[in-house]
Structures are given as structure tokens and as C-alpha cells.
Amino acid sequence: MKKRLILNCLCLIFAASYSQNKTKSMSDQNQPPVATIKPKTLEKHGDVRTDNYFWLNDRENPEVIDYLNKENDYYNKATAHTKDFQTALFAEMKGRIKEDDESVPYLYNGYYYITRFEKGQDYPIYSRKKGSLSAPEEIMFNGNEMAKGHKFFQLSGISISNDNQFAVFALDVVGRRIYTLQIKNLMTGEILTDKMENCTGNVAWANDNKTIFYTRQDEKTLRSDKVFKHKLGDETAKDVLVYFEKDDTFNVSVAKGKSKKYISISSSSTLTDEYRTILADEPDSEFKVFQERVRGLEYSISHYGDSFYIVTNKDKATNFKLMKTPENTTSKENWKDLIPHRDDVLIEGIDIFKDYLVVSERSNGLNKIRIMPWSGKGEYYLPFDIETYTAYTTTNVDFDTDVLRYGYQSMATPSSVIDFNMKTKTKEIKKEQQVLGGKFDKNNYIEERIWATATDGTKVPMSIVYRKGLKKDGKNPVLQYAYGSYGISMDPYFSSTRLSLLDRGFVYAIAHIRGGEDLGRQWYEDGKLLKKKNTFTDFIDCSKYLIAEKWTSPEHLYAEGGSAGGLLMGAVANMAPQLYNGMIAQVPFVDVMTTMLDDSIPLTTGEYDEWGNPNDKKYYDYMRSYSPYDNVVAQAYPNMYVSTGLHDSQVQYWEPAKWVAKLRVTKTNNKQLFLDTNMDAGHGGASGRFEALKELAKEFTFLLDLEKIQK
After folding, report:
1. Which of 79, 456, 457, 573 is the most exposed place for a label (fewest CB within 10 A)?
2. In terms of Cα–Cα distance, which of 176, 173, 171 is closest to 201?
3. Cβ atoms of residues 306 and 323 within 8 Å
4. Conformational region of residue 271, where left means phi above 0, alpha means psi within -120 to 50, and beta covers everything else
């Protein structure tokens, strides 16, 4: 009896101990933070929205920083089991990259310019050699030295004076793309006292070697709205405002043309352009309007000889055409067709040489490079053999040459820089991207272009790449990527980091959805404003096609997009969450309504031609119907990894923060939802050559972990 009592007591003690340990274990579990609800009523056009997380819109508020840090802590603890894999992936991806690498030198004004990296260093070294590649190297800027002491560092806007003596350069040490301009004497190494704050990094030298034109931005909206003129050695307070753009839907930039005869100020919105010019030899003259702005008239200008060449949509040239006008009579009534408009060919730009005109075109979604001698005899196209390539003209600063420099790559072919002699039609590969590690062979991969049919019957192309031996059994993990805004085409490109997914069985697909310009200008027009939903449904229909054709299944399909592509992710997550096992949304633009109604936020007013102006009820109602944050509903959502930067100037950090907070309390399942905020970076993520690989390793391990691939 006594023994039984002792045993019972021991059982009770054990049970109590077990209960205490279980309770303690449950309390120690990593729980996601729940953001405080502070309802704010927002009303427009009689529509009332309640925003429970509006308060997150204050990066100076300690409570906001505390919430972001808690989200980071939750993410880090929840993914602690993948940290070793992240480290291994980072090393794997870094191991494919040649650390002591350098760019192909280009000749400009008597000097060869080179950008190079040293082993173990994060930032580029900018150097030059006078007259010959065998000449002594002159280091202009060593980014590694300049970056010391900064958590974020970006050097930009390097521009050299005509006499090769001075260089303007721009620095951003925060990540909000707000630059400080300074000037270096390249002969003595001295940094001059001239310092221009709150700049964009956009600069043009006059031909007198002492006058600089530069752009500044509004301190609050970050809109580039002013062009100033600075004289070397003068106090910045004496800088002359030469142009102020009053229309808050336009941005300004300044440039000197390739012929070096003119300096131009461009003032542009999504749908309209206006240029002003002066002779580069006369920096104190007044800028003259080239062609005044006309709503819907887009144009860009290039000078050659006694004429300007204009790429424009004048006369309803949807896919643009090339026109010509005398340099002294530049208004549009004087423009004459040189290459007329074609319904099936988009003109993307031109490069002018002494003896040749080079036209970059796009036909059936593919890049074309057209060589046209000024003599009018023997024009031709560069030949390309496959359908999943990207070709583009690159650094062509030399005017008097027969050599065109262009880039080429495909989804399985590393990028190359090629010098093509337009006269002899011979080419020299100056550099092909090296993939180190000894394991890469492009013959191990297959690339294809396939077409999905959208809901409205439109054929939508996809570029895909995968490792040989793939079986279409519905079990393959597929990462489907797209952007789909601003008329930006997502051409097929090579990525050495992507090999880490392909070699582990992933298929990578780029969906060339409407909203980009992949199939011409109309492709863009059909994915913006009141047709924006085509972008989202195209992506969904591409996903359905991949599933129907047994490339994959909903259990193995993943979606990825960033910025405006992050809006795509948010909309698709609301519209068709059942199609995806996981999503990656990088710096996503998801709070469309609040952002587009706040004209103090950077970029908002300039976006009206892309999304519409919500002060007009027609556009308000349409945006309201797809804005990801406003359309989160009680349903099961995919696993989601969401990233942002505290100092992001393009998509403010609070958009993804609010979105994640709302998803946490609304979604009906317990799948993963992570918000990962870089507290030291902006829209482009971490600075430093290899820091970005650490962020990529996070994304890859998120996908691979869901696929139960652990090494």
C-alpha cells in the first residue's frame, strides 16, 4: 500500500512536471508577431476603407522599428534550420563567380576605361589607361576604400570632362538614391571642395571643362525636377537653376549627345516627352525647346551631322518610327520619315556612327539588330539562331569607328561582349562570362519558348530552361517569374546563380505577360491603366498551362516578382492562391490605393499614366478592385517570403509590412509567411558585390526547404 502511494505520488509529480515542460515548450515556440490594430478611416469617392496598419507608415517611430525587428527575429528563428544550407548556397553561388574580374575596356577620348574587381573585395575599382592597354593603370576610384565605415555604399554617375582632367562622381551611403555630387582632379587625386547635395547622380559636362549641369530632386517626393548649372570652384549656393519642371507628373534629366555638339534636358512622363537643347560650346546660353510637349507625343533625339534623328510615336506610330529633321528647325512639322512605322516591328532605340546607323528592333518578342550604312547600300541584320536569347548594343561611345559592341546571352549561354566590324561583317568575342567550379556545361541544359493561351485567347510566350533528363510528370518544381509593367521587357537571360536551382531539379520560366513590351507597344498598352488585370490573368493562365502540360503541379509551382512584379504577386495571391505552393515577393508594391492617393510619396504623381489617377473615380474603382492590400480575404494563401528595405525610395517599406500584418490575421491556413526587412538598404537591396547573394540564398532556401531539398 505504501509502495503504491509512493508510485502514485511519483506519477503525479511526473505528470505535473510533464505538464509544466509541455506548457514551457509551447510558450518557447517561435510565434509570429501580431501587429497592433489601430484603425484609420480613409474615404474617397464615398468609398470608406479602414486601414488597421496605417500607423506603420513612420520609420522614425520606435514601435514601428520594434515591429520590423520582431518580424526579422521570427523569420530568423523559423528558418534557423536552413542557415547552414544558406551558407553553403552562398558559397556555391559565389564559387561560380570570378572574383578578380574586369570589364572589357572601351576607348573614349584617348583613354581606355576599365572597371575591375579584386579577390575578396565587394566594390569595383574604376581605372583607365592612356592611349594603350599596356600603359600604366590610373585608378580613378577605389570603391572598397571609399565604402569603409558605411553599412551601405553606392558610387554612381562618374562623368569625365573633355580634357580628361576632372571626374564628377555621386555617392549614396543610405540607400534612398539621394546622391551627393563631388569632383575629383584625376591628375592630382585631389577631391575639390565643390559639393552638391540632394542630387540624382545625373550629370553632363559642357565643352569648356568647367561647367557642369546636374539634376536635383524634391526632398520629399524624390521627383527629379530641377536642372542646375555649376562652375568649378564656385560655392554651391551660386549654382544657377536653369530649368524647373513644374508638372509633378514629369521628371527631368540632362545629357550630352554622342556627337558632343549639344547638351539636352529631357522632361518626360510615361506618355509625353519634351527636350531642350544648347550648344555644348555655349554653356551660358539659354536652352531652346526642341519640340514642345503634346500630350501623348513621345520622342527621343540623337544628333548627327547637321540633323537630329528622332525615335517617336508621332502620327499614331504605336511601335515607333524613325524621323529626321534639320538641327535648326526642330519642331515636329519639320520631321520627315526615315524608317516608317510597322505594325509588327517595335523600334527600341538607335546608335549613330560616322558611317552607320544601328537600329535596335523587336519582332515577335525577339531582339533584332539592324545595320544600315548611311550610304544606303547593303543594310542587314545580325543573325541569331535560337528563340531564347537576348541581344543588345552596349558601350558604343566612339563615333568614328566601324566596330559595334553588343552583348549576347541566352538562358543556357553565359553572357558575351562582342565587337562586330560592320564593314567586314566579322566579329570578335571580347569576353564570355566565366562560370567557375568546373561543373558547368551549357549542353546539360535545354531552353525553349512555349506559348500559353490567355483567358481572352491571346497567346502569351514563356521562356523556360531546365536540366536535361526532365520528365513531364507533374512533379517538377517550377519557379515562374514575371514583371509586367512600365513596358519593360523581360528578355531571356543567363544567370549563374540560377544553376543552383536548375541542378536541383527546378525548371525556371519567364512569363512574358502583357504590361511589358515584349511583343511590341500594344503588348504594353494592353496591360496598363484600365487593362491592368490582363497582367495578372496572363500570369495565372501561364501557370495553368504549366500545370496542364504536366511541367509541374500546384504542389510544386512557385511564383516570384519584385517591385511592380511584387504587385503582380499580391494580386495573383488573392486571385488564384490554390495554384502555388509558394511565392517570393521582393519589395512589393501592394498598397496601391493609399500610395496612389498620396502625392507626397516618391514617384506617385509620375505613375498616373501607368496605373491611372485615383482622384478620378473610374480609376479609383478599378485600382480598388485589384489592390493586393485592400483585397486580402479569408482564404488559404501559399507559403510566402516577402522582402523589403527600410530605406526603399521606390516602394516604401510599410507597403509589404502592412500587407504581411493583414495576411497574418486574415489567412485561414498556417502556411509560412515571412517578412524580411533589410534595415540598412533600399530598393536595390544590400550593397556590395556578394551581399546580394546572401539575400538570394535566403530566397533559394525558402523554395528548396518547401521542396524538402536540404543540400
Report:
1. 457
2. 171
3. no
4. alpha
Residue with cell 492562391: 577
Rounded distance, CA 374 to CA 687, Å?
A: 44
Strands 639-645, 582-586: pairing kind: parallel
CA distance linking residue 647 with residue 680, whole number of Å: 7
Can you read off the three cell numbers belonging to residue 37? 490594430
| 3-class SS of residue 249 | coil
**424-469 residue pLDDT tens:** 999 999 999 999 988 899 999 999 999 999 999 999 999 999 999 9
Distance CA 570, CA 587 (A): 11
Question: How far apart, in whole angstroms, are the C-alpha atoms of residue 700 and residue 399?
Answer: 44
Pairing of strands 356-363, 138-142: unpaired
**How many angstroms separate the CA atoms of 237 and 376, rounded?**
52
Q: In angstroms, rounded to a whole number, what is the distance separating the alpha carbons of residues 341 and 115?
A: 39
d(CA 182, CA 172): 12
Active-site annotation, residues: 563, 648, 683
The 10s digit of each residue's pLDDT in 555-614 is 999 999 999 999 999 999 999 999 999 999 999 999 999 999 987 765 677 788 899 999
Calpha distance 623→585 (Å, rounded): 19
Q: What does the alpha-carbon distance between residue 494 and residue 85 come to, in Å, rounded to a whole number?
A: 24
Residues facing 368 on adjacent strands? 361
